[in-house]
């Protein structure tokens, strides 16, 4: 009933906002469900009595030959054979929607007399098509690529097309290079690989030899290349057009679309996963938002330069590889576009939609932009090839204003023109020219003088100033993402000439950028900059600049993770609250179907329909999620490896996570998020927020009544806090790395005064699937250096990173094992290559943070960085920039120390090959570890009180039985890891519920690796399958021996 009412409301609203173009399309729209005719017909109207059997010559018992005379069958097959038209050479993958455009007032009349830009009483119908560039129609939506942003205005003076992108510049300056660029970016001709990405030799070879592309490459490798949604990206006209006003004055203009929701991007890891999990993510996202009534909106802005000022800049304003910095040419917002209708049929509307840069209306014209000049020819010619010469008669392309000319005939002609006259001039004066005074198009009287020659002017030969400006203007984490993206792409180039050439080119943009990428991809590491970096910045090039003024969760996808036994009242209250904020909620359960709340019998009672099951939709497809309360529900979640992976993955992608009641216990005990603080009392609705995790003990009717959705930092309600936390994460803590004031970090610095800190996950340092490699380096480090200390802890991570980056790491591991080459040499080698400084800061146990000093900011840069992010305003005084590597998903320094203590007493003579996630957490012996760290029940002592320096004490060779015991410990730990997906957790729900209001039940208890291990915990004991009783050899083959066969185990939590 509710869905019927909602559908009727949407239909009513759509009919009220229906535009002239929507009405025009109704003339060609047929609804088979409402037809009154008898049934199926041929294309020429003949009723078809049998559409399942071809006419054959047969005797009723044996089949015979099919007859060519069967016109019905031939028509059906022939129409099918020709259903596909040639796909676009570029921008083949796309989707579209209808909408409308309005200007706010006539403020633009000082630049143009075009009514579409000056008449606020008009509502101009629009059609918009978003697309990727490189891939074919079957490629994925979330690849790293430029996005097309093409808009068609159906004005009363004719169609006006802005054929733009989500990036304001382009790869080339002159259109004559367009075939070369497209050939280079497309899949390589010998094997048609790769699809939907630029990570291949030909593309990077081209841009490495075409330095004019440097600026565009910076944009494409930035987070702009992986937008979260079409609705959350800017649009740019790219080229320089002109406007002409009523005084016959001309202005150069660039067009901009500014999204209402702000500019968001994926995390790269997220984008990669969504490519496989939902290749149509962006298409569905646009349709879902419109169907939900959360209509996407963009402000329309212009930049204008008077003709007299054309040459007042140090760049050529007609160069499409350059932006017009807003400090020099401010944006003027003049209107707004709204998309409020999805297409009825994809092919005739979206696929046959055709755009041309040459389609303008009176008051808008062209400049001498050499890329635009070529596009004006190319786009029109392309549409003729794809759709035929009469492509503008197709319903989606035809104007809503009157059309009359003497064009005739051609393939697929639709229009029927009566009369004898098809030329001008004619004796009847039919369809003659329209004077400018009556609305005819006027070309600006431009003076042109020159010599015919093939040259580029001096300003067109400067290619790096704006590439530097863009890179300088990014936040530290945006720079890190760009470095990672360029490294990823170039690492897929297997021709050394290609990646060495481009790493040299990068040195013209930024020395540190070039050096880091060269180290990552094996390029030539520069020893000095090839070009001075001017150091200029502008805040308008960072995505943070475009955050909406008011926090919003409109159209955001919020998952509610449930199992049988959940709290139904909470879920209903949450869904109602988020609906009020126009967010969409999705129930994710153990199955697609009914999931039963507490008190209901599974399979018999009244349940809530789950939209997807745990395997059907991953956390990557949602913006945030919540775990409601319910003891049985929480216990079942804890027993499922996929749900644990769900939460950890979302936390790693910096998504807002909410939990209520026993859902908190699930987070704390099963998921284990180190450093996160949780609500202390499960009987209180007091909200606790920590690192994007929002928790409250309960959420009942009273809580719901008091929790009117108002997104703000000082709000008290759970939903309001959760929405605000999403907002903060989406913009200020976005996306996996973050810059924020030192005073907010949960650790105390000893000797270091830190200003800008970039959070990174340790998973960035270790490949998540290379367990044996990870363990080997760790184990060898123990033998060579003993316990980790403040002095050597980063050496270990640096060594591990160094090995991870080597293509022959197996050889290096064997060399280390058999020659005894000290690993610290490798760490020093890495330091020599990178030139970075390292330090360690650790908090009260069990937290650990590793500080990696990266660079220094000048006071001006620090000020501009703070201006971009208000949360950084208190930290802009200190010029040092650091990277904070947090081990939040793996282990603590104390837990790691315990593991080292237990393992450094022995050295197995074989290399373990069973899948392994470090560290192993062994219960400390009462006479050993308890002296240093207290008993398992007592609080851990501060790391500062321990002597963590110096090599381990020399030990006598262990006796045979001791070696066997140690080997058994090692084996059990590895087996524990191998079966970690099957581990079940007994949650301390009863204890939590009975806790007194002032008794904390949260806080960072003993912390574990991503693998549950047999260690004593406070209030929760992971249950792990026992190791099989099979003999463990005291001695095995040497490190170069054969690999042990991995044991089969259900690895559902490994993702």
Q: Mind telling me the CATH superfamily name of one domain? A: Catalase core domain
Q: What integer is the average pLDDT?
A: 74
- By DSSP, the count of extended strands is 26
Number of helices: 30
Q: What is the terminal separation in angstroms?
A: 38 Å
CATH class of one domain: Mainly Beta
Helix content bin: 25-40%
Going by helix content, strand content and strand pairing, the class is alpha+beta
Share of β-strand residues: 5-15%
Radius of gyration: 33 Å
CATH architecture level-2 label of one domain: Beta Barrel
State the low-pLDDT regions, or none: 1-6, 12-16, 732-779, 797-1055
Largest sheet: 10 strands, antiparallel
The CATH topology of one domain is what?
Catalase HpII,  Chain A, domain 1
Judging from the principal axes of the Cα atoms, what is the shape? globular
Protein name: Catalase
EC number: 1.11.1.6
Cofactor: heme
Keywords: Heme, Hydrogen peroxide, Iron, Metal-binding, Nucleus, Oxidoreductase, Peroxidase, Transcription, Transcription regulation
């Amino acid at each position: 009933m509710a869905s019927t009412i909602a559908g009727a409301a949407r239909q009513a609203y759509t009919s009220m906002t229906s535009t002239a173009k929507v009405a025009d399309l109704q003339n060609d729209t047929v609804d088979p469900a409402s037809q009154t005719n008898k049934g199926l017909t041929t294309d020429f109207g003949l009723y078809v009595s049998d559409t399942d059997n071809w006419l054959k010559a047969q005797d009723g018992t044996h089949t015979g030959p099919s007859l060519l005379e069967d016109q019905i069958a031939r028509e059906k097959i022939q129409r099918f054979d020709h259903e596909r038209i040639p796909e676009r050479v570029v921008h083949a993958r796309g989707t579209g929607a209808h909408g409308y455009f309005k200007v706010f007032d006539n403020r633009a009349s000082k630049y143009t007399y075009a009514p579409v830009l000056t008449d606020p009483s008009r509502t101009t119908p629009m059609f918009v098509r978003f697309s990727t560039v490189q891939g074919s129609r079957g490629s994925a939506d979330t690849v790293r690529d430029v996005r097309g942003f093409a808009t068609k205005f159906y004005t009363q003076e004719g169609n006006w097309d802005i054929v733009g992108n989500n990036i304001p510049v382009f790869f080339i300056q002159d259109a004559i290079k367009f075939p070369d660029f497209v050939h280079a970016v497309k899949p390589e001709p010998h094997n048609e690989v790769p699809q939907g990405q630029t990570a291949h030799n030909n593309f990077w070879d081209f841009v490495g030899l075409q330095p004019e592309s440097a600026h565009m490459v910076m944009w494409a490798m930035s987070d702009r290349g992986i937008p979260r949604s079409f609705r959350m990206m800017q649009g740019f006209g790219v080229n320089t057009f002109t406007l002409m006003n009523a005084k016959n004055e001309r202005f150069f203009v660039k067009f901009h679309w500014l999204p209402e929701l702000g500019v968001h991007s994926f995390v790269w890891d997220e984008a990669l996963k969504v490519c496989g999990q939902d290749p149509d993510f962006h298409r569905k996202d646009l349709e879902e938002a419109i169907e939900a009534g959360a209509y996407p909106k963009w402000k329309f802005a212009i930049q204008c330069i008077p003709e007299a000022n054309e040459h007042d800049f140090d760049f050529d304003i007609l160069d499409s590889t350059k932006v017009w910095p807003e400090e020099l040419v401010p944006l003027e917002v003049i209107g707004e576009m709204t998309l409020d209708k999805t297409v009825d049929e994809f092919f005739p509307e979206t696929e046959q939609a055709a755009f041309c840069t040459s389609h303008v209306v009176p008051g808008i014209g062209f400049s001498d932009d050499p890329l635009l000049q070529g596009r004006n020819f190319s786009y029109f010619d392309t549409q003729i090839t794809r759709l035929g010469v009469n492509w503008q008669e197709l319903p989606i392309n035809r104007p809503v204003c009157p059309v009359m000319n003497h064009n005739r005939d051609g393939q697929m002609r639709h229009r029927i023109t009566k009369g004898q006259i098809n030329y001008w001039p004619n004796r009847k004066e039919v369809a003659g020219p329209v004077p400018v005074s009556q609305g005819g198009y006027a070309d600006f009287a431009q003076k042109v003088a020159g010599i015919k020659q093939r040259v580029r002017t001096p300003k067109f030969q400067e290619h790096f100033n704006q590439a530097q400006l863009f890179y300088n203007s990014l936040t530290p984490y945006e720079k890190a993402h760009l470095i990672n993206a360029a490294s990823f792409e170039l690492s897929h180039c297997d021709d050394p000439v290609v990646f060495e050439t481009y790493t040299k080119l990068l040195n013209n943009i930024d020395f540190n950028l070039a050096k880091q990428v060269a180290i990552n991809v094996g390029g030539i590491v520069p020893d000095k900059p090839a070009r001075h970096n001017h150091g200029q910045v502008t805040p308008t090039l960072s995505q943070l600049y475009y955050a909406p003024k008011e926090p919003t969760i409109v159209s955001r996808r919020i998952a509610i993770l449930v199992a049988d036994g959940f709290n139904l009242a909470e879920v209903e209250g949450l869904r109602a609250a988020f609906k009020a904020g126009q967010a969409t909620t999705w129930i994710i359960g153990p199955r697609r179907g009914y999931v039963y709340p507490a008190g209901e019998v599974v399979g018999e009672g009244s349940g809530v329909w789950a939209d997807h099951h745990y395997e059907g939709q991953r956390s990557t497809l949602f913006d945030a999620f919540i775990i409601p309360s319910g003891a049985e529900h929480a216990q079942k979640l804890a027993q499922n490896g996929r749900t644990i992976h769900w939460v950890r993955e979302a936390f790693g992608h910096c998504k807002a996570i909410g939990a209520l009641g026993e859902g908190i216990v699930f987070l704390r005990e099963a998921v284990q998020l180190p450093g996160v603080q949780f609500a202390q009392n499960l009987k209180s609705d007091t909200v606790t927020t920590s690192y994007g995790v929002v928790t409250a003990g309960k959420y009942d009717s009273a809580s719901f009544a008091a929790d009117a959705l108002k997104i703000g930092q000082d709000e008290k309600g759970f939903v309001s806090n959760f929405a605000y936390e999403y907002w903060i994460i989406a913009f200020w803590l976005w996306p996996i790395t973050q810059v924020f004031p030192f005073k907010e970090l949960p650790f105390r610095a000893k000797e270091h005064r830190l200003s800008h800190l970039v959070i990174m996950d340790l998973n960035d340092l270790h490949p998540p699937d290379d367990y044996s490699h990870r363990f080997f380096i760790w184990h060898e480090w123990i033998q060579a250096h003993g316990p980790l200390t403040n002095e050597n802890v980063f050496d270990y991570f640096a060594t591990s990173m160094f090995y991870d980056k080597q293509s022959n790491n197996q050889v290096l591991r064997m060399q280390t094992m058999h020659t005894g080459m000290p690993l610290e040499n490798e760490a020093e080698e890495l330091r020599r290559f990178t030139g970075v400084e390292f330090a360690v800061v650790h908090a009260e146990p069990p937290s650990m943070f590793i500080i990696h000093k990266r660079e220094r900011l000048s006071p001006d840069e620090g000020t501009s960085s703070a201006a971009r992010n208000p949360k950084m305003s208190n930290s802009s005084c200190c010029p040092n920039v650091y990277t904070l590597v947090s081990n939040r998903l793996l282990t603590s320094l104390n837990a790691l120390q315990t593991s080292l203590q237990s393992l450094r007493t022995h050295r197995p003579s074989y290399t373990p090959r069973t899948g392994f996630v470090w560290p192993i957490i062994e219960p400390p012996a009462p006479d050993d570890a308890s002296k240093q760290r207290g008993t398992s029940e007592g609080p851990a002592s501060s790391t500062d009180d321990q002597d963590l320096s110096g090599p381990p004490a020399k030990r006598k060779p262990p006796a045979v039985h001791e070696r066997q015991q140690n080997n058994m410990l090692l084996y059990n730990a590895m087996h524990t890891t191998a079966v970690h997906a099957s581990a079940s957790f007994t949650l301390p729900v009863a204890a939590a519920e009975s806790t007194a209001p002032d008794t904390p039940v949260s806080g960072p208890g003993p912390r574990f690796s991503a693998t549950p291990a047999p260690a004593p915990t406070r209030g929760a004991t992971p249950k792990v399958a026992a190791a099989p009783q099979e003999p463990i050899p005291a001695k095995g083959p040497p490190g170069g021996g054969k690999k042990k066969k991995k044991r089969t185990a259900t690895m559902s939590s490994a993702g």
